[in-house]
Amino acid sequence: MPPPRNRERMVMIALAAIALTGLAYLAWSSIGWFGAGLLGLLVLFLAVRVELEDNRPVGHQMTPGLYAGQYHSESGQGHAERAGRSSERRVLASSARLASLFGGLLTITGFGLFFLS
Fold first, then answer.
1. pLDDT tens-digit profile of 18-69?
2. Beta carbons of 97 and 52 less than 8 angstroms apart
3. CA angle at 111 for the pair 106 and 115, rounded to the nearest 5°
4. Helix/strand number for the chain, H first, E second
5. How many CB atoms lie within 10 A of CB 37?
6. Cα 91 to the chain's mean position, in Å?
7. What is the dihedral of CA 83, 87, 93, 99, to 10 degrees?
8. What is the largest CA-CA distance in the chain?
9. CB of 89 within 8 A of CB of 55?
10. pTM of this prediction?
11. 27 exposed, middle or buried (CB, 10 Å; 0-12, 13-18, 19+)?
12. Cα separation of the two ends of the chain
């Protein structure tokens, strides 16, 4: 799957921001600023988790065979496949960074206004 073009990326960022704003409004109307802060923490947690997993298999700490198998299969790939995989990782990392930015802003705003009011 090719990475989205710049125009498509901007549209998707705008749609994600609108959806997150709508969810934040629902959380604010039901719980108050505390709900908006909790939603921001949830988004931040999910973004950091996606960034840490890096689109690889996730298992228990005591399963080194899972990780070794993944790295072994990646080392057998050709140059073009590795470049494509690297491009996918960069797109995923930039999306996760953007989501963590949105989550952080929502967390700071929600909890900040909760404690100020």
1. 999 999 999 999 999 999 999 999 999 999 988 887 766 666 666 777 767 7
2. no
3. 150
4. 4, 0
5. 24
6. 11
7. -170
8. 58
9. yes
10. 0.76
11. buried
12. 47
Helix or strand holding residue 10 (H, E): helix 6-30
Q: Which tokens belong to 48?
A: 């950091």
Measure CA 79 to chain center. 27
Q: Nearest to residue 4, comparing CAs of 84, 115, 111, 91?
A: 91
What percent of the chain is predicted at pLDDT more than 70?
88
Q: What angle do CA 8, 11, 16 make, to 5 degrees?
A: 125
Structural contact between residues 54 and 89, judged by C-beta atoms closer than 8 angstroms? yes
Q: What's the pLDDT at 31?
A: 93
